[in-house]
Amino acid sequence: MRRLRRGWPNGPCPKPNAPSSRRAATGGDNRGRQPCEERDPQLAIDIRLIVEPHTHTDPELKTDRVYLNLSAAEVRAALQERGDRDEELPSERTLRDVLNRMNYRLKRVQKGKPLKKTEHTDAIFDNVKDVRASSAEEPETLEISVDTKAKVKLGEYSQGGRKSNRQRWQRCQGVGS
User: Fold this and answer.
1) pLDDT digit string (tens) for 75-112?
2) Alpha-carbon distance 117 to 95, whole Å?
3) Cβ(165)–Cβ(108) under 8 Å?
4) I need a labelling partner for 41 at 20 to 30 A (CA). Which of 64, 120, 137, 155 fits?
5) Do 109 and 163 contact (CB within 8 A), yes or no?
6) Cα–Cα nearest to 106, from 73, 62, 63
7) What distance in Å separates the CA atoms of residue 123 and residue 140, rounded to the nearest whole number?
8) pLDDT (tens digit, 9 = 90+) per residue, 12-59?
9) How far apart are CA 42 and CA 22, in angstroms?
10) Domain residues of the chain, as ranges?
11) Per residue in 20-30, pLDDT tens?
């Protein structure tokens, strides 16, 4: 049975997904625009120098992703501070793509979880127990229990328990309110 298609002579129809016999003269692997980090290798080096101090990994080491607490706009501003001209730098959107290709993901720095019990915990509670026992024997001593709710850094926190973006957060306070 023959099919007739508009524009084709009466005969066997070519297969719709048949590979074409036409080939590009130069190959086809080098078509299209190269990524800006390949066109300018120094840009990739500069980005890594800016980004590396602000990177962190998953605290529980479950994944091998590298997280970054700098946005593409902040990386672009840091590149401008290094002396690059604004016209020579890629746009913020392009920098976002570059950071993703370099396997950096934007995520807030997670604080490390404190140890459940520090080495001084037993000594602190033994001291409290001794003071309570000695004050209970004295009839003129009044015992008052006070819970101050003070934030005491006990244990090991990443970055000493501080947020690295605290200055940026304080600058943004009041915006939109």
Assistant:
1) 999 999 988 888 889 999 999 999 989 888 887 766 66
2) 44
3) yes
4) 64
5) yes
6) 73
7) 27
8) 655 666 566 555 555 556 678 888 888 888 999 999 999 988 888 776
9) 38
10) 36-113
11) 655 555 555 66
